[in-house]
Every structure is written in C-alpha cells, then in structure tokens.
Amino acid sequence: MAVCLGTAGCGLAPPPMPPVIVPEVEVCLPSSREVTDREDFTGQTEAVRTIDIRARVTGYLKAVHFRHGSEVKKGELLFEIDPPYYQAEADRAAGVVAEMEAKSDRMTLDYERAKKLLPARTIVKEQFDLVSGEMAQSVAQLRSAKAALKIAEVNLAYCEIRATIDGRLSRPNIDPGNLVKADDTVLTRIVSQNPIWVYFDLDERTMLRLRRLSPNSSIGDSAAGKMSVQMALVDEPTFFREGELDFEDNRLDPGTGTLRVRAVFDNSDGLLSAGLFVRIRLPIGAPHRSLLVPEQSLGTDQGQKFLYVLTADDQVTYRAVEVGKVHDRQRVINTGLEPDERVVVTGMQRVRPGIKVKPEMTDGAALSAADARSKAQAKQAN
Q1: Residue 92 pLDDT
Q2: pTM of the predicted model as reported, rounded to 2 decimal places
C-alpha cells in the first residue's frame, strides 16, 4: 500500500523544517599588557656552608651539649672530650716554663755581673763567653718551653668542641663514652640556614639567548647588575620568592648540554632546607607589550594551536596562532590575532567554522582567575 509523504503529487504540504538552533558562546577581547619572557626550571636547594664537626684531639667523649637538630650560633659548646690527660700536659708544660724562667733570670744576672768584671780583667774572656752562651741557651730553652705550653693549652681547649658557624645541627653520630679520633671521627654536621643556594641547569638555547642579551658579562653578573630570579616550592602556586643569580659554571655538561647555574635566596623565615626540590622562574629580556587570551580558549589541531574568532556578523572562523608563555592563566599570542577581534572562550565544543553563534561578552582575565581558583579548590579537596 502506497504512503503519501507530503509531496506535490499527493497534494499535501511538506512537513515544517526544524528550527535552526544558534549556539550561545562566551567571547572576550584579547587583553594587552606588559609581559616579560621567562623560562621555568627545576632546581635543588643547597646550604651555603656545610661543615662536618670533627675533634682536633683524641680522647673519650664526655658529654653532648646540644639538642638534636637544633639551631646554634657560632661559638656554642657542642661536645666535650674528657680533659684530665690534656690538663695534666698543660700543667706539666707550665711547670717547665716556670723552671726555665727561673734559670733564665739567673743566667741574665750572671751575664750582667760578668759584663762588669770583664773590663777590670777580674775574669778572663773565656769565662765571659761561657756565661754569655749559657744565658743565650736559657733564653732559647724558655722560648721552647713557652711554645710547648701553648701547644698543651691549645690541645686542652680543643677538648671543648664548639660550633664554627651559625646553622642547624644534625644528630650526634656517637654517644658519650666512645673513643673519638683526632681529625677522623665525624661527630655531627652543621649547615648554614640563611641565605640558601639553589642550583639548576640552563639548557643551551636559553643560555645563548641570555648571553646575547648581555654579551659582555656572565649570566650571574649582567651589565645591569645581578639577574633576578623567582622561586616556588612544590606546594606554592605562585613564584613570590625573589632571589638573584650569583654563579655560573665555566663549561657546559657535554652529556646533557646544560650549564649549571646558582641563585641565592633569603631564608630568614627558616622554611627552606638543603635538599628541597623547587621550581625556578628565570625572566628573560625586557618587558614588552603582548596580546593575551584565556588558556581555555586555545585548541590544538595536530600540534597546531588555534582559536575560534568571530567575524563582524558573528560567524565563527578558524585561526591558527603562534603562542608564547602563560602569564596568570593567560596565554601570550605572538602572531595570528588582532587586538579588536573577539575570541570564543567557552562553548567551543558546540561550534565549528562557518556557523553563526550568539555571543556574550565576558572578561577574559576574570574568567582565567576564576578557573585558577576552581582548580586550586579541586586540588585541595583531593
């Protein structure tokens, strides 16, 4: 049985066409502001000074005078070696000095008398020479005795082992009662806390770019002064810690093609410790004006970044762009976009090139900030 589908042959009107749905999208104008090119690296903190505390004399450890892992100041007492032997050596040396002083005084008086008797020929020249030689010998013996006393006093002082720098201590490596060997046994380690170094590796391309910007100076000491650098810890979303580069190595690592450099940071709050992995942001060049769009407005097509841009009659066009770095959740657009062109920010999955849309203007910077807050909240929730 034939069914009429509403064609002209059966005299019925065709069914109505479904209404055209115009997608609603949020669009924004690119923001224009001053930005500075930068590169991010991974670095590791290291103490400016690290000292292994060793004894200067051999003996049995008598006492430990610090709390494990505590902060200390230079000169504070850390360990004590049992001192009776070294005290006895110092006392014996002091006795020898007293003996030599008495002998030297007597020889000096003999010499003075002989010097007065020689012109009157009361004594012969041979006797005067003998007295003179004995006096010189006593002076030399006294000097040697005083040197031995100094050594004994130094060794006695070495029984008290003190901090050589301000810093943070580790734990004691041995307990009281154990034998400590001079210049051998490591008792503990002390590391300085403020300031602190961060070492990281520059790739060859970034190194050459920096050197071309400052051709007559090193990276750590540019013509305009030391180069600034920012740091963020693993749980910090922004690079708010400020430091400066102060060293670069004299050669590239041939295995990795990188140059080891160092930055110095203030650590007055004591939060940083040696061995931390951190993120380093290195500004490159002078600030320049650039166009920026929200990061979520960018799409990727076989490695090519693109934007959906609206024409004057709200028609969607595909626009391949060259992008730069991200600044505050906004991406720098180097080429491919004009300042007065509207960019699709949300609803990109509902549009395609050539169709018309119903746009709603929004603030791209505010949208990026809101997106950053939502992601941070989601991360904290997880």
Answers
A1: 93
A2: 0.69
